[in-house]
Amino acid sequence: MAQVKLILSEDVPKLGHAGDLVSVKPGYARNYLVPQGLAIHATEGRIAELEHHKRQIEEKVQKDRLLKEAERDRIQGTAVEVAAQVGVEGKLFGSVTAMQIAELLAEQGVEVDRRRIDLKSPIKEVGEHTVPIRLHRDVSAEVTVVVKAANAPPPAPDAGAADLDDVVAAREAEEEARAGSDDEGPPPDED
Question: Which stretches of the chain score pLDDT less than 50?
Fold first, then answer.
């Protein structure tokens, strides 16, 4: 299949950095990169202008990097807490996703695009997890996601049997105490 040559105007993860000349499939260029303003078509004239654009793009990247470093200082060490339904052994019934983390950060006044949250796989266990956030190609921050149980986990099979025996013994003791306090007994039936 034919490839289309583009000049990236912004960093695109797993593709290249701003100012790079890349070849991509036509659909990716037509449907995503060009409409989003992430790249422009590489014509002969634009390739000649690339050196000039590289200087402009590099200045833009440096300014953006400074802004992202300030944002990193604000975000670094932020902690969010998630309450989730938990099964036996602290495993979640669902999972905590990048979208949920982005929403929790937004509630704390930290706006982060969910695509920038570098979650390798959804979180599926109770505990404290460190999650990196890619703010810039050279700048990243880490937030702490604390996953807690929203429900009490069901008792383990062995512990449940012992607890059940204690409950049954307590009820029997209560019934014996009540029976001992009723000395008279029930009134006789009169027919």
Answer: 153, 159-161, 191
Residues with Cβ within 8 Å of 156's Cβ and at least 6 positions away in sequence, in order, are 88
The number of beta carbons lying within 10 Å of the beta carbon of residue 8 is 21
pLDDT of residue 24: 94
Provide the pLDDT for residue 69.
Answer: 87
* Pair 12, 115: CB distance under 8 Å: no
Tell me the CATH number of domain 79-149, given options 3.90.226.10, 1.10.418.70, 3.40.109.40, 3.10.430.100.
Answer: 3.10.430.100
Which amino acid is located at 33 in the chain? L
The backbone torsions φ and ψ at residue 100, rounded to the nearest 5 degrees and listed phi first, read -65, -40
Total Cβ atoms within 10 A of residue 35: 10
Rounded CA separation 139/122 (Å): 23
